[in-house]
Design a protein that fits this description.
alpha/beta, Rossmann fold, N-(1-d-carboxylethyl)-l-norvaline Dehydrogenase, domain 2, 2 domains, about 50% helix, HIBADH-related, NAD(P)-bd_dom_sf
């Protein structure tokens, strides 16, 4: 069975170690605060006081720490990693994935970047999805072990692809949550329970989610006007009404104003006939500040 090292035992790292242990794997673990590693010690989990001793026997080294700065510091101290695969499951940006790889230059490791689409309690179940990119042979060699963490999907050989997909999916999630947060705030400010709105909101969002394939096709083709049934000029009015009603209710419109402004800017430029997908053009044209 594959010899595994897990570096980092925060909420997610701990869940990774326990998921591997539950699936019959033996592993060595390390955490900067050694007491966290000692707390996991068992028949299958060995707590090690140093990174070097943790990774020495390992064929598969999983890094899951607070951020890519911490991950890079750990990788910078790695010895020669010949014969080892390093899987960086630390959340970060695509450019940081490349930065981590640079810290492993000339250390002879095979490398995978990862993106965890899960919360710690569901690690090791089929509800967890982990995205991987980088060395495909390394992925295939260790897929049976990686499947102990949850469903696995290989995104391609570019190390940036796993974190790109991870953050794009999270952006979509936070968009949904921010809209729901505003909707619930409006209801509470009106004296109504959020739970009263939730079933209808889920039904409405479910219907809107079905339009994402069409929206993606509009973005890729650049055609934002063919077949449009609810154009930006109409949607600008709805957004203005949402912001106005929110202010009347005493609800801060901070979550809605950015979309209101983007739509208004697009309409002001003469693109009022476009679908909501036209906002993507506005985002691509805007300075990244």
């Amino acid at each position: 069975m594959t010899k595994i090292a897990v570096l980092g035992l925060g909420a997610m790292g701990r869940s990774i170690a326990l998921a591997l242990s539950r699936n019959g794997h033996s592993l060595t673990v390390w955490n900067r605060t050694h007491a966290k590693a000692q707390a996991l010690a068992s028949d299958r989990i060995v707590a090690s006081p140093t990174v070097a001793r943790t990774i020495a026997p390992a064929e598969l080294v999983i890094v899951c720490v607070l951020d890519q700065t911490a991950a890079g510091q750990i990788a910078g101290d790695f010895p020669d990693m010949s014969g080892k695969v390093v899987v960086n499951l630390t959340n970060g940006t695509p450019d940081e994935a490349i930065g981590f790889a640079r810290r492993l230059d000339r250390k002879n490791a095979r490398l995978l970047s990862g993106g965890i689409m899960a919360v710690p309690p569901i690690m090791g179940t089929s509800d967890a999805l982990i995205l991987y990119s980088g060395d495909q042979h390394a992925y295939e060699d260790h897929l049976p072990t990686l499947m102990a963490l949850g469903s696995a999907q290989f995104m391609g050989d570019d190390l940036r692809l796993a974190p790109l997909n991870d953050l794009a999916l999270l952006a979509g999630m936070y968009g949904v949550f921010s809209g729901a947060a505003h909707a619930f705030a409006m209801f509470r400010a009106s004296g109504r329970p959020a739970g009263e709105l939730a079933p209808l909101l889920k039904q409405w969002l479910g219907a809107m989610i079905e339009t994402l394939d069409e929206m993606a096709a509009q973005v890729d083709s650049g055609d934002h006007v063919t077949g449009v049934v609810s154009n930006l000029a109409m949607q600008a009015i709805a957004l203005n009404n949402i912001v106005a009603a929110s202010r009347d209710l005493g609800v801060g419109p901070a979550l809605m104003v950015p979309m209101q402004q983007l739509v208004a800017a697009r309409v002001d430029k003469g693109h009022g006939r476009e679908d909501i997908s036209g906002v993507v053009v506005e985002l691509l044209d805007a300075p990244a500040v």
